[in-house]
Amino acid sequence: MKFLLKIGIFLFMGIYMMNAQESFPYGWLGNYKGDLSIYGVDSVRMKLKMNLDIVKTSNESIYDWTMTYDFNGKKDKRAYSLVVINKQKGRYQIDEKNSIVIDAYLHNDKIFTSFFRVMDSYVIATYTKEKNDIVFEIISGKSEPISITGNTKQGKEDIPEVAAYLVNGRQKAILKKIE
Hints:
Number of strands: 12
Number of domains: 1
Strand content: over 45%
CATH superfamily: Calycin beta-barrel core domain
Strand order of the largest sheet: 1-2-3-4-5-6-7-8-9-12
Shape: globular
Helix content: 10-25%
């Protein structure tokens, strides 16, 4: 009986460790590379090379999160930190190391999203893990609504106010794991 209990514990721990290694951010560690497409209204306006490096540090709660863009041979490197705030609740922060810290959330252990406002634009940044790839997407829009509708009563139903915003920016890259 003790032998079976030991085997059960060993199997449970093995499965737990395999799942822990695949979970965010540990399961996302590595170097990723791809082409970032920046869209205009109806076409790709610009393409450039992009790298994302996610590296473990000596602190279990902090990972290096470095994004590098290549503008025709000129590198724009953004060395951020990914900070674990509450792994169980999927709450993280991207620390840009310049007084800007952006909250981000993990959903289903494969979609990492932040939603923030900078100057006069709202921005949604999403990283989606698909096997060994990460799909990076940005959608941005002006923070002033282009229309406001609703805020009425239809029979007995109170209709909430809905503000719509102009989407004026879209970017997408499929980043392939290279290491």
